[in-house]
């Protein structure tokens, strides 16, 4: 481990405990939730693709309960830094996409 090696090189030692805070998950591209998210993006003239990502999210927890969920790219800038921000334009676009998802699901439920 890098921490232990560095501590040893500097004459110290490190005790490291690793815990899983967020479980990983994998959603198949053919899942309804993925198709709805992609359709909502297309309806707004956006491109939509699936990627593998690290880190934790509410989706990580929700998926453990058997409720398929996806994470929408929301336009953060300088994420996980002291300068993290989200432009208002990106926030508005995300709100539009969520509204589009609601419309799609409502139509499918009829």
TrEMBL record:
<keyword id="KW-0378">Hydrolase</keyword>
<keyword id="KW-0031">Aminopeptidase</keyword>
<protein>
    <submittedName>
        <fullName>Tripeptidase T</fullName>
        <ecNumber>3.4.11.4</ecNumber>
    </submittedName>
</protein>
<keyword id="KW-0645">Protease</keyword>
<dbReference type="InterPro" id="IPR002933">
    <property type="entry name" value="Peptidase_M20"/>
</dbReference>
<dbReference type="GO" id="GO:0045148">
    <property type="term" value="F:tripeptide aminopeptidase activity"/>
</dbReference>
<dbReference type="Pfam" id="PF01546">
    <property type="entry name" value="Peptidase_M20"/>
</dbReference>
